[in-house]
Write a structure and sequence with these properties.
The structure is a single chain. The protein contains nine helices and 22 strands. It has 472 residues and is of the alpha+beta class. Helix 1 (15-65) packs antiparallel against helix 8 and helix 1 packs antiparallel against helix 9 (414-471). The longest helix is centred in the last third of the chain and has 58 residues, at 414-471. The two termini are 44 Å apart. 29% of the residues are buried.
Length: 472
Amino acid sequence: MAAISSLGIGSGMDLNALVSQLVALERKPLQQMQSEASKLQNKVSLFGQMKSLMSSLQDAANKLAGSTLWSQTKALSSNPAAVSVSSATGSLAGSYQVSVQTLAAAQSVVGTATFSDSSALVGAGTLSIELGSWDAGATAFTAKAGGSVVDIAVTDTDTLATLRDKINASDAGVTASIVTDANGSRLSIRSKTTGAENGFRVGVADNDGNPTDAAGLSRFAYDPPTGQSQMLRSQAATNALATVNGISVSSATNSLDNVIEGLSIKVQQVTTANVDLTVSTDTEAITEAVNAFAKAYSSLAAFIKDQTKYDDASKKGSPLQGDSTATGLLNQMRAVLNSPSGASAAFPRLSDIGLRLQADGSMLVDSAKLTTAMGNLTELRKAFSNHDEADASNNGFAKRYALLATGVLGTDGSLTTRTDSLQKLIKDNQAKQDRLNDRVVLFEKRLITQYAAMDAQMAKFNALSGYLTQQL
């Protein structure tokens, strides 16, 4: 409550200023409380960043401790332009030889009849399109199992363009397009899908009564055994034919996905020599994971060190200087790094793998040493990912860090409980501020009441003094 504007008129004293000064003096402890609250909020923020960095270390450790990384493979082709390959996680390491005799293709036919443009009329009747396979000389057709004939009604108002559109809208398994050159426009029809069984034939019921002539709708027929062949086949429908380790394989597409378990092979060119495919453990992915782990460790260690240090030059400590939770976590991280593990006889310490602490607390990866360790992947995997519930000393290093992170980030973990305690201190601090503010308000009201009464009395005394002076 602010002092009333008339306070001090009776006494001639600046009682408003006096009240303000006394209230400010009473409120002075609030500044210290607010400063303390700001420091507490800053610590909460710092522990939030620490939890985030620990979570990143946990993710990096879990990757090294899990099975997916170690079963990840890499496939290479000696001629990727002709045969490309990729491998799925868990694929068996090995080598294969692939040669390609034929690529899968879609059937294409093009009309021999030319039109002035796409608006030219095409005749009337019914086109019947059916998917299936042709023999080598296109003398016999075998309908595709489960397929059916698709009939397309054509009217005497249909043009080359509308015929194309009707074919494309028919869902007959083919697509039509108009090809225009110096001689005019022609219709081209192509299978939507590659493979020998996705060839097609086009029968015609021409309204002019003759389905084999070069007039009317007959110009779009392709069915050699019946003599309806005004369109020419420019590309036969074929399967991809290849050999894998000497075994002949066939595919309706140029992807040989089910030939070798876990491998996706794509043939792209006919070959004159074998293409070598090799599948091996993806050591590059493991190297990346190890470096990511070291980076996550270093980032967290550097953050804790920076926030807990004391600067001799400025004689000032960092916000978390002396905080046992922060320094304790750093000590735990170092203890895991320096404690030997029984997980692998070949690599009992992280330094044996090529990971060691620097003077500044960061983790260095010795690339040469790590590359050497890659030569013994079985033991390297144990050194990182082994999990022994009966004896924690036999846990791999990545498993140890994953468990450490799970502990400190858990509901009862040190980082969580420290953050909760800071939040409680902030809440208590705010309650103290509220109580002080309430007390100051009451104090100000009491002062105003007291000084207002005194001011009134002084006004009376001054009036009496003036009266006596006049009488005398």
